[in-house]
Each structure stands twice: as C-alpha cells, then as structure tokens.
Amino acid sequence: MTQEKQPTFDIVRIYTKNVSLESPNTPEVFKLNVQPEIQIQLGNDHREVDPNIHEILLRVTVTATYKTEAEEGAEGETKVMFLAEVEQAGLFLIEGFEEGQEAHLKGAYCPNILYPYIRPALDQLIAGAGFPPVMLSPINFEAIYADRLAQQAAEAAEEQVDA
C-alpha cells in the first residue's frame, strides 16, 4: 500500500526586506496647513529559493502629495510630501499541493499572513518622519486574487478569438 504524501504548508520565517522613505520637501512642508492626497500601491511577488521553499514578497507604497498655491495665471504645482515603501517578505514551505492550490497560497493566503506586519512598519516609518500615520484599511487578498484570475481568463479568451 502506497501512502500519499499530505500537502504541507508552513511559515519558515517572516522578515522585513526593504524599507524606504523620501520626504524631499521637508522641513518646509511642516509649515503648510494642507490636506495631502494619499495614494496607496500594493504589489506582491514570489520566487522559489529552495525546493518547496518560496519567498513571498508584499510591497506597499504610500505617496502623499499636495498642491502648491496657484500663482496668477498658473495652476498650482503638485509636490511630494512623502513617499514611504515597505517590503515585507516571508519564507514558506509549500509542498504537495496541486498547481491551482499552490498559486492561491502564493497569491492570496501568504500575502494575508504578511499584511499585519506591514501596517505597523509603515505607520512607524511615516510617524518617524514627522507625519501623521496613514491608517491602512484591511485588504481582501482573496478578492484581488480572484479578480486577477478572472482578468487572466478574459485575456486568454480574447487571444483565442484573435487567433
């Protein structure tokens, strides 16, 4: 009787991979009484570093911009208040899963594990630069992953029609 190997998932390590902050218009920006426009970009990536050991990377970039006062006959200029980026990574043992299940773990489940670590790291980075922290909302990585799959399926269907 052969024994099927059970799928295995484990967190090997969670770590901060990269942190950066730019605030090119300090200290002048501290004198302003403006409400910045906040843009948040989210990205994730993965790579196999050893057999069945995958590095999953979650990147969050927060950019705060503001408009300078318009001068006569000209529009105000958009300037960067700060740009903060944190890359949180994890090493995960992923073994014995079907291809679709493994893709789901890498694209949704692991980012869900990493996200709680990235939020305080970003808040601390931004507050340490003298700005109020940006409260990141919870993110539904399952929905993002499902949207990405639907988009890939639509693109594949479109390519077949064009062929």
From TrEMBL:
InterPro entries: SecB, SecB-like_sf
Compartments where found: Cytoplasm
UniProt record, GO biological process: protein folding; protein tetramerization; protein transport
Gene Ontology CC terms, in alphabetical order: cytoplasm
Top-level division of the source organism's lineage: Bacteria
A single GO molecular function term of this UniProt record: unfolded protein binding
Main location: cytoplasm
Keywords per UniProt: Chaperone, Cytoplasm, Protein transport, Translocation, Transport
UniProt cross-references to NCBIfam families, sorted A to Z: secB (TIGR00809)
Matching PANTHER family: PROTEIN-EXPORT PROTEIN SECB, PTHR36918
Similarity annotation: Belongs to the SecB family.
Subunit structure and binding partners: Homotetramer, a dimer of dimers. One homotetramer interacts with 1 SecA dimer.
Function: One of the proteins required for the normal export of preproteins out of the cell cytoplasm. It is a molecular chaperone that binds to a subset of precursor proteins, maintaining them in a translocation-competent state. It also specifically binds to its receptor SecA.
Name recorded for this polypeptide: Protein-export protein SecB
Organism: Ignatzschineria cameli
Gene responsible for this protein: secB
